[in-house]
């Protein structure tokens, strides 16, 4: 329901991504009613007249023109849909729910079907672009679901992203997102291999990155994560745990569709190795630590030796 002619969004999940998306919605003139199970996540939000911290989940959903979730994984979205005071319990028929998390495409289709029986339209609208894309409002948003729902959600998408594409029926957004993650994962692996080889042969890795970015090996990953990989900066951005979750979803989907993905299977095992060494909370770029182990290279020693 609009308040004083302002559109109202109920927003659930304000972690690394959601906190920026909420600010962009507020700055675009929408009222955002925000809920997160972690109070610190709510307290970390910027102060803005259009941002209202909800006292509970139903408080965030109440009277909203759209409900948006930005949650870690499939069970969290199911909890917000079916849990106490959640979407099924609170939203009236005719409501619009958009899940922008990366979750199972199969579960997405089941949820969309069940909600449609209650007159609630669900879209899946996962994103790409990372925290920087979320902060700058330049996310790529891939949307599955019905065209009418897409049109209703479009003003909200425009506040958060730049490339906004309706890619098909329920679940299609998640399929495209998983293809995105497959490419990202294999690309990170390729960069790790190139850096491990370059390092072992003693070349200046920053110089190598610069020249590669001007040629056909250039990529988003090399551009945004290359320097962190070279310097050994494992600090979190997109966490290894979340990327592993995405690769697991890719592999599950591939099994169901009977499509062999040998390169993705290999990369997934590198992520299992990283998690087994307690590195799940590191940023995605920290897959280089697996290569440090594989090449038995101590980073400090090799930097000295390669100079
Ligand atoms: P995050 O873990 O930083 O944030 C998720 C938030 O959801 C947390 O604050 C958590 O407390 C909250 N939460 C969990 N369960 C909840 C519940 N039941 N009710 C209310 N709040 C709940 O995750 P993130 O990095 O912001 O990612 C969110 C989603 O976006 C994931 O599916 C991820 O795969 C996807 N994604 C992340 C990135 C990235 O670079 N971080 C990029 C693209 C897509």
Automatic annotation (TrEMBL):
<dbReference type="InterPro" id="IPR013328">
    <property type="entry name" value="6PGD_dom2"/>
</dbReference>
<dbReference type="InterPro" id="IPR036291">
    <property type="entry name" value="NAD(P)-bd_dom_sf"/>
</dbReference>
<keyword id="KW-0560">Oxidoreductase</keyword>
<dbReference type="GO" id="GO:0050661">
    <property type="term" value="F:NADP binding"/>
</dbReference>
<dbReference type="Pfam" id="PF14833">
    <property type="entry name" value="NAD_binding_11"/>
</dbReference>
<feature type="domain" description="6-phosphogluconate dehydrogenase NADP-binding">
    <location>
        <begin position="10"/>
        <end position="168"/>
    </location>
</feature>
<protein>
    <submittedName>
        <fullName>2-hydroxy-3-oxopropionate reductase</fullName>
    </submittedName>
</protein>
<dbReference type="InterPro" id="IPR006115">
    <property type="entry name" value="6PGDH_NADP-bd"/>
</dbReference>
<dbReference type="GO" id="GO:0016491">
    <property type="term" value="F:oxidoreductase activity"/>
</dbReference>
<feature type="domain" description="3-hydroxyisobutyrate dehydrogenase-like NAD-binding">
    <location>
        <begin position="171"/>
        <end position="291"/>
    </location>
</feature>
<dbReference type="InterPro" id="IPR015815">
    <property type="entry name" value="HIBADH-related"/>
</dbReference>
<dbReference type="GO" id="GO:0051287">
    <property type="term" value="F:NAD binding"/>
</dbReference>
<dbReference type="InterPro" id="IPR008927">
    <property type="entry name" value="6-PGluconate_DH-like_C_sf"/>
</dbReference>
<dbReference type="Pfam" id="PF03446">
    <property type="entry name" value="NAD_binding_2"/>
</dbReference>
<feature type="active site">
    <location>
        <position position="177"/>
    </location>
</feature>
<dbReference type="InterPro" id="IPR029154">
    <property type="entry name" value="HIBADH-like_NADP-bd"/>
</dbReference>
<keyword id="KW-0520">NAD</keyword>
């Amino acid at each position: 329901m609009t308040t004083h002619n302002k559109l109202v969004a109920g927003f659930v999940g304000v972690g690394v991504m959601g906190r920026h998306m909420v600010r962009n919605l507020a700055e675009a003139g929408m009222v955002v009613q925000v809920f997160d199970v972690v109070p610190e996540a709510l307290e970390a939000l910027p102060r803005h007249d259009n941002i209202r911290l909800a006292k509970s989940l139903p408080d965030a959903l109440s009277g909203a023109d759209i409900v948006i979730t930005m949650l870690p994984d499939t069970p969290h979205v199911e909890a917000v849909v079916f849990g106490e005071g959640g979407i099924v319990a609170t939203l009236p028929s005719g409501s619009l729910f958009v899940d922008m998390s990366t979750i199972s495409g199969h579960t997405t289709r089941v949820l969309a079907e069940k909600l449609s029986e209650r007159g609630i339209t669900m879209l899946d609208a996962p994103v790409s672009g990372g925290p920087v894309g979320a902060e700058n409002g330049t996310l790529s948003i891939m949307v599955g679901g019905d065209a009418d729902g897409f049109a209703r959600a479009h003003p909200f998408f425009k506040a958060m992203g730049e490339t906004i594409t309706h890619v098909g029926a329920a679940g299609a957004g998640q399929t495209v997102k998983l293809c995105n993650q497959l490419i990202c994962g294999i690309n990170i692996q390729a960069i790790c291999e190139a850096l491990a080889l370059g390092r072992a042969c003693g070349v200046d890795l920053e110089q190598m990155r610069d020249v590669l970015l001007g040629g056909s090996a250039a990529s988003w990953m090399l551009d945004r994560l290359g320097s962190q990989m070279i310097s050994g900066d494992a600090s979190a951005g997109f966490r290894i745990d979340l990327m592993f979750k995405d690769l697991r979803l890719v592999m599950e989907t591939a099994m169901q569709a009977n499509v062999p993905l040998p390169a993705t299977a290999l990369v997934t095992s590198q992520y299992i190795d990283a998690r087994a060494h307690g590195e799940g909370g590191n940023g995605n770029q920290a897959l280089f630590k697996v290569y440090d182990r594989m090449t038995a290279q101590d980073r400090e020693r090799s930097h000295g030796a390669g100079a």
